[in-house]
Design goal:
This protein has helices at residues 12-23, 35-45, 57-62, 78-90, 105-116, 130-136, 146-159, 177-206, 211-221, 229-239, 249-252, 262-273, 278-291, 293-302, 315-318, 320-356, 362-368, 379-388, 400-423, 428-441, 447-458, and strands at residues 5-8, 27-31, 50-53, 69-72, 96-99, 121-128, 139-142, 162-163, 166-167, 471-473, 481-483. The protein is an alpha/beta fold. The structure holds NADPH dihydro-nicotinamide-adenine-dinucleotide phosphate. It catalyses: 6-phospho-D-gluconate + NADP(+) = D-ribulose 5-phosphate + CO2 + NADPH.
């Protein structure tokens, strides 16, 4: 026994993570089902640190010092379950199995329970940053017991990304907490990408700007409140020219967005928890609509009617001063919509924590997202500050900083939604975030009417504004009211 950590599964993610571990002074046992991957890793990168290559899982486990700690990075689903069981068969009480894949948090809860019953620790660990992050420093969200964190914490801290000197990893909570938080991270990522895409569309279709010019705008935005990895790479993508055709890269890419399911999980979970995550939801639905290419093709053939001033923002676009002012409006609309989407994502984590009995430190979660992960941004410092101030508040939108940010952005936001709607340009996250915001502000919602309808057709009862209790009106009778339970 000589390795303090092991990695099972040496495809893109596992190989990068192993190298990162070895480069940071860990002795890393490595195992892959087919030895060829292990061999490649040793041949190409064996000199980067101390590796202990194993031909069999038995050899792998035997090379680990106790408590044995093994990170699984194999294909999600059945292969992961299989590997967890194989490892558990070979390990002893107190050893730690880490699943660092993108597992569904309910699977993690199930697996943790089963492995705990066998006396071992099971840690579901969310890892963000892709292959490059795994190699150069990811943001990591481990769940599991406090005891497993004692062993695993220093190892993960050694390889995590750093933001302002702090490692981008923290013990999130028990069982599935880490994978839950990673899931919401991905959902927020969907919303963030969609608001950027909507901004691009307004400049492209609405204002008629060329991709290169729009890239410059995003570069400028990246200097301010919107400073983030996603805005930065947006500029990079928009500047890129297709080598084959000489056309802007953005114009030769099919407009059908893919997805692997974490965004969908975030929305499904939010529905179960009854937390409105309209920004994330619309972002997932937008990818769905984009992927429905045949349906959109048919709609075009059918010639579905649009506004008279289809697509363009007309005289606004041809007046340089108004055009410039509108770009600033878009920036503010993006910022406000993004704040709403994050506020909703954080609400989902709060509600998830209540439902599943986790003690989530939302400020710490915002801090570990500042580096290494896809949504890394300066903005997360503000969220972290909001939660660190210790005040109990129901939404990030009530925090003084964000409250003021939206106050300053809202006129622009409303102008953008109005203009886009008038021109027939879809802005699902801009518009739904604004509706959510206005709904939240409303002292009185039309839900009273819905209660009336429900009581009429289904005797579902309603509450009165002037008296407590549940009431039902005899709609088919004399219209009198009865108090439930009377
Ligand atoms: P893949 O998901 O492509 O999986 C390939 C690896 O799984 C290979 O090592 C393969 O071994 C192994 N494997 C497949 N089936 C089995 C099995 N039945 N038994 C044992 N081993 C098996 O690899 P990636 O590196 O892309 O991803 C690894 C994990 O990380 C996945 O869970 C994925 O969801 C997650 N991931 C996370 C990302 C992130 O940003 N956090 C990004 C990408 C992935 P062999 O070589 O022998 O075929």
């Amino acid at each position: 026994a000589e390795a303090n950590i092991g990695v099972v599964g040496l495809a893109a993610m596992g190989a990068s993570l192993s190298r990162n571990l070895a480069r940071h002074g860990n002795t890393v046992a490595v195992f892959n089902r087919h030895y060829s991957r292990t061999e490649t890793l040793m041949n190409e990168h064996g000199s980067e640190g101390r590796f202990v290559p194993a031909h069999t899982l038995q050899e792998f486990v035997a090379s680990l010092t106790r408590p044995r700690t093994a990170i699984i990075m194999v294909k999600a689903g059945d292969p992961t379950d299989q590997m967890i069981n194989d490892l558990a068969d070979l390990m002893e009480a107190g050893d730690i199995i880490v699943d660092a894949g993108n597992s569904y948090f309910k699977d993690t809860i199930r697996r943790e329970k089963a492995i705990r019953a066998r006396g071992l620790h099971f840690v579901g660990c969310g890892v963000s940053g892709g292959e490059e992050g795994a190699l150069l420093g990811p943001s990591m969200m481990p769940g599991g017991t406090d005891e497993s964190w004692e062993t695993l914490g220093p190892i993960l801290e050694s390889i995590a990304a750093r933001a302002e000197g702090e490692p981008c990893v923290t013990h999130i909570g028990t069982d599935g907490a880490g994978h839950f938080v990673k899931m919401v991270h991905n959902g927020i990522e969907y919303a963030d990408m969609q608001v950027i895409a909507e901004s691009y569309d307004l400049m492209r279709r609405g204002l008629g700007l060329e991709p290169g010019r729009i890239a410059d705008v995003f570069e400028e935005w990246n200097e301010g409140d919107l400073n983030s990895y996603l805005v930065q790479i947006t500029a990079q993508v928009l500047h890129h020219v297709d080598a084959r055709t000489g056309r802007p890269f953005i114009d030769i890419v099919k407009d059908q967005a893919g997805m692997k399911g974490t965004g969908t999980w975030t929305v499904q979970t939010a529905l179960d928890l009854a937390v409105p995550v309209t920004g994330i939801g619309e972002a997932v639905f937008s990818r769905g609509l984009s992927a429905s290419a045949d349906l959109r093709e048919e709609a075009a053939r059918e010639g579905l009617a649009g506004p008279v001033q289809e697509g363009g923002l007309g005289d606004l676009a041809s007046d340089p001063d108004r055009c410039k002012a509108f770009i600033e409006d878009i920036r503010k609309a993006l910022y406000a919509s993004k704040i709403v989407a994050y506020a909703q994502g954080f609400n989902e984590m709060e509600e998830g924590a209540r439902e599943y009995g986790w003690n989530l430190d939302l400020g710490a979660i915002a801090r570990i997202w500042r580096g290494g992960c896809i949504i890394r941004a300066k903005f997360l410092n503000r969220i972290s500050d909001a939660y660190a101030s210790g005040g109990e508040f129901g939404s990030l939108l009530f925090d003084p900083f964000f409250k003021q940010a939206i106050e300053e952005a809202q006129d622009s936001w409303r102008r953008v939604v109005t203009a886009a709607t008038g021109a027939g340009i879809p802005i699902p996250v801009f518009a739904s975030s604004l509706s959510y915001y206005d709904g939240l502000r409303s002292r009185r919602l039309p839900a009273a009417l819905i209660q009336g309808q429900r009581d009429l057709f289904g005797a579902h009862t309603y509450g009165r504004v002037d008296e407590s209790g549940a009431f039902h009106t005899l709609w088919a009778g004399d219209g009198s009211e009865i108090r439930q339970g009377d």
